[in-house]
Amino acid sequence: MAQGRGGAMAAAVLLCLLLSHLEFARAATYTVGGAGGWTFNTAGWPKGKRFKAGDTLVFNYNPSVHNVVAVNRAGYSSCSTPRGAKVYQSGKDQIKLVKGQNYFICNFAGHCQSGMKIAVAAA
């Protein structure tokens, strides 16, 4: 009887490991802007890509001249940073997408207005 429970426990552990592995396998990592990184005129970069909640965006840039700010739709449209917005400044930021619209801008003067912003829809 004890042997049966041990086998069932091992099977349950194996099943949990498989499921967690499948979850990781479904998430993808994208480098924003491709080889050129996070820079001007990247607004069109998401076109043609299919993003899912849990995917990771990697923003590569020079932190002395750029940043990444997660904003709402109004902040994206107006190129402004809402109060409480998360500002990333490492130059190698990794941001996990949430379901729905995700908006990012650079809030250095004039950068967002020059196309340094993206809107990403995640299913």
TrEMBL record:
User: What sequence ranges are listed for the domain Phytocyanin?
Assistant: 28-123
Q: Which InterPro entries match?
A: Cupredoxin, Phytocyanin-like, Phytocyanin_dom, Plantacyanin
In the UniProt record, the signal sequence range is: 1-27
Tell me the keywords, alphabetical order: Signal
Which Pfam families does this chain map to?
A: Cu_bind_like
Q: Determine the domain of life of the protein's source.
A: Eukaryota
Q: What's the protein name?
A: Phytocyanin domain-containing protein
User: Which organism is this protein's natural source?
Assistant: Hibiscus sabdariffa
